[in-house]
Design a protein that fits this description.
CATH class: Alpha Beta
Number of strands: 12
Order of helices and strands: EEEHEHEHHEEEHHHHEEHEEHH
Number of helices: 11
Helix content: 25-40%
CATH architecture: 4-Layer Sandwich
Structural class: alpha/beta
CATH topology: Metallo-beta-lactamase, Chain A
Shape: globular
Radius of gyration: 20 Å
Strand order of the largest sheet: 1-2-3-4-5-6
Largest sheet: 6 strands, mixed
Strand content: 15-25%
């Protein structure tokens, strides 16, 4: 079976194409807000170039490893500029399954809280993509959405999801949310539960029964309540960089990690999203004896753009798998913007020092 892996130039972002005789799958499509470009408007230009390439593919599917802007911003670009065409760009989309468990509202709440804390550091023109916008994209431009968790086969049995493990994600969320105001979080959990109910109903509904306009209306109604809630809280004055880093780590560790399901002689792949090394170690140890890792892996996509992250929490030595190729999506970063937003902003340095 012939394998072709294409790495799109997404700056400091992710977009890949994995193709074989049975599958034509895009993995992520996003560009980080802090990607450095010499030319103004380059981010939009790259979004357009990749979007055109995707539209030219025959029946592509999409896998979203996790819900961060540098992995999904291009999808919102497609929704904005191709909305008049009324077409299903992707035949099927795979997303991390944070929707079908009892702790889902808390996990969704943590993701939304991270979005708000991130946006408080950015200018109006740099706002990150919201989970609500992504859900509207899934309703408008996708024939079928499939939530994935550990142990699920997908893409006509070509690939196996190794992560997320919902029990571990749930446990991790319980450790993080108590750090925040109970009053603020209770309202956000209520909003998150409403979104969860709408989306799980939609995901499980047969195509011919779906009323897309009605679902979009429900999402937007919940979204208005969400923005009313967020406007009642002054995120800019909150001094919680440590908490933001924890939420960012949680969102990354919901990443879908996957490999080709059946061992091949020289075409084994491992894609890791942005999962933290502490979870990656669990995955590669086959801790529950349900998902064996191939003894050799020829193509390994390195987590988190090849960066070690705070406290080296994304670094992992894959040498034992004797890879032929490492795939690293790592463009330039606008450090002046990063320094302004995360270090030189008032009252931030003392919290960052705890993590550096």
């Amino acid at each position: 079976m012939s394998l072709r892996i294409e790495v799109f130039n997404a700056g400091f972002g992710d977009c890949f194409r994995i193709e074989n005789e049975k599958s034509n799958m895009i993995v992520d499509f996003g560009i980080h807000q802090n990607t450095y470009f010499r030319k103004k408007g380059k981010r939009k230009e790259i979004h357009e170039k990749i979007a055109k390439s995707i539209k030219e593919l025959k029946k592509p599917t999409l896998l979203i490893t996790h819900y961060h802007d540098d992995h999904i911003s291009g999808l919102l670009y497609m929704m904005k500029y191709y909305s008049k065409e009324k077409l299903a760009i992707f035949e099927k989309v795979y997303i991390p399954d944070i929707w079908n468990i009892s702790s889902a509202p808390k996990i969704i709440a943590a993701l939304l809280l991270e979005e708000q804390m991130k946006n408080a550091k950015l200018s109006k023109s740099e706002k990150s993509v919201t989970l609500f916008e992504l859900m509207k994209f899934l309703c408008s431009f996708v024939e079928n959405t499939v939530p994935l968790k550990r142990g699920q086969s997908f893409e006509d049995d070509n690939y196996l999801a190794l992560w997320p493990d919902l029990e571990y994600i749930s446990a991790n969320t319980k450790l993080i949310l108590p750090r925040f105001s109970t009053k603020d979080i209770d309202k956000l959990i209520e909003i998150s539960n409403q979104l969860r109910k709408v989306m799980t109903k939609y995901f499980n509904m047969e195509n011919h029964l779906r009323d897309i306009s009605s679902v979009i209306y429900e999402i937007e109604k919940i979204e208005r309540v969400y923005w009313d809630w967020s406007n009642s809280i002054d995120f800019k004055s909150r001094d919680e960089d440590a908490e933001y880093l924890l939420l960012n780590g949680l969102a990354n560790s919901i990443s879908i990690v996957f490999q080709n399901k059946y061992y091949t002689k020289n075409q084994n792949i491992l894609f890791t999203g942005d999962v933290e090394s502490k979870f990656l170690k669990k995955v590669l140890s086959n801790y529950d004896q349900t998902c064996s890792i191939h003894e050799t892996i020829d193509f390994i996509k390195i987590p988190h753009h090849g960066t070690k992250g705070v406290n080296c929490n994304y670094y992992y030595d894959f040498g034992q798998y004797k890879p032929r190729y490492y795939i690293i999506s790592n463009g330039g970063v606008n450090y002046m913007r990063f320094l302004h937003n995360y270090i030189f902003a008032p009252n931030k340095q003392k919290h960052l020092n705890k993590h550096l």
